[in-house]
């Protein structure tokens, strides 16, 4: 096939896509529940985003970082303002690159132990993989970066004990408030309280990885705002470019001027076409829009909890906003879930072996949610009878 075999691809030849639907070459349509893994907040082929892309292409597609595109300033301003702090933005092309920028800043600012947590996912480049909490992803590429400590997620006592012993040697803590690849678990209050409390004592840097959960996905502009995490650096990507590659590392407070000329760079980021799409995306993330995400989340979650009551195969409903997980009572059903989904013309994504991850378009309608649930229940019913 001439393509590296790094993904288990679905047996569908895509012809086109629109909204929440993907159409194959034979004319069949499939309901897409994961929107390009959270990239397409406004669904496939959104007219406003496509128009912004089209208009920008007619101006220029690339000018290099010897110039500043006006949209970069607009986008950076909004990203910083939403943190409620002063700050600056370094644009990159992917979530891994944004986290690499954060790591590089940490190395410049403060030497020491970097804490990450089990089931955190921060990327697959050498640096970002070094802080990713999946041993099976890391071990064949070791040795990676040194001085990384992995602790259990949401275990406040173990975290507190570790900080009490190593506090002066800790440089940073990476937090993924909602585990996108790790099963949709959300950070709990006690855990955040420990992280915030000892930051005041030991002055370590807190990085909120918002690559998947940010930009309205959880009903707040940034997911950490649901949990009052006192972050210093915020990384965003996925939905930022409206379907095109774009990410950002946002440096706030006393860390806002961490990079000087020549400290870091990117040939392609921020790409003007991606910026034009990104400006359209963030302009539509208003308070009213965020409230609608919360309302649809409540509607969808209540329906999923009803499914849980009716089908014992469902162990737990997890997540927040329109970033929800259906944990199945069997770790060996991943392939069945995908297969049954294809049979019912619904595209399902499974993470951590047994959790169906739902990342629908944020502008999904209630009617479309009902259609998703109708097809999803047929899949769950088949699983329940296995």
UniProtKB/TrEMBL annotation:
The keyword Transferase applies. Keywords: Aminotransferase, Pyridoxal phosphate, Transferase. Its EC number is 2.6.1.11, 2.6.1.17. The keyword NAD does not apply. Pfam families: Aminotran_3. One of its GO terms (molecular function) is pyridoxal phosphate binding. Its cofactor is pyridoxal 5'-phosphate. PANTHER family: ACETYLORNITHINE AMINOTRANSFERASE, MITOCHONDRIAL, AMINOTRANSFERASE CLASS III. Belongs to the class-III pyridoxal-phosphate-dependent aminotransferase family. This is Acetylornithine/N-succinyldiaminopimelate aminotransferase. The lineage of its organism: Bacteria, Thermotogati, Thermotogota, Thermotogae, Thermotogales.
């Amino acid at each position: 096939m001439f393509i590296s075999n790094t993904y288990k691809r679905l047996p569908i030849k895509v012809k086109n896509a629109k909204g929440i639907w993907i159409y194959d070459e034979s004319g069949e349509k499939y309901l897409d529940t994961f929107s390009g893994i959270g990239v397409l907040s406004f669904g496939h082929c959104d007219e406003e985003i496509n128009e912004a892309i089209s208009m920008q292409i007619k101006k220029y597609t690339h000018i290099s970082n010897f110039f500043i595109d006006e949209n970069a300033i607009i986008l950076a301003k909004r990203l910083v303002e939403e943190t409620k702090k002063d700050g600056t933005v370094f644009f990159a092309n992917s979530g891994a690159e944004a986290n690499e920028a954060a790591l590089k800043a940490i190395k410049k600012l403060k030497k020491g132990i970097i804490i990450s947590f089990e089931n955190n996912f921060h990327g697959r480049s050498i640096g970002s993989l070094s802080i990713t909490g999946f041993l099976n992803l890391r071990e064949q590429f070791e040795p990676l970066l040194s001085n990384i400590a992995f602790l259990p997620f949401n275990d406040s006592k173990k975290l507190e004990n570790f900080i009490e012993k190593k506090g002066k040697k800790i440089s940073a803590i990476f937090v993924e408030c909602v585990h996108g690849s790790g099963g949709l678990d959300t950070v709990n209050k006690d855990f955040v309280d420990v992280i915030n409390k000892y930051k005041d004592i030991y002055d370590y840097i807190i990085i909120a990885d918002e690559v998947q959960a940010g930009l309205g996905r959880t009903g707040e502009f940034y997911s950490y705002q649901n949990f009052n995490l006192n972050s210093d650096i915020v990384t965003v990507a996925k939905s930022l470019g409206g379907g095109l590659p774009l990410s950002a590392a946002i440096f706030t407070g006393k860390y806002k001027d961490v990079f000087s000329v020549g400290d870091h760079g990117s040939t392609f980021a921020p790409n003007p076409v991606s910026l034009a799409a990104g400006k359209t995306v963030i302009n539509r993330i208003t308070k009213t829009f965020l409230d609608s995400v919360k309302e649809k989340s409540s509607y969808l979650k209540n329906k999923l909890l009803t499914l849980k009551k009716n089908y014992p195969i469902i162990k737990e409903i997890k997540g927040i906003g329109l970033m929800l997980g259906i944990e199945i009572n069997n770790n060996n059903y991943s392939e069945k879930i995908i297969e049954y989904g294809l049979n019912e013309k619904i595209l399902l994504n499974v993470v951590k072996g047994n959790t169906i991850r739902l990342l629908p378009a944020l502008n999904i309608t209630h009617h479309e949610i009902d259609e998703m649930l109708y097809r999803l229940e047929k899949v769950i019913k088949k699983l329940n009878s296995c």
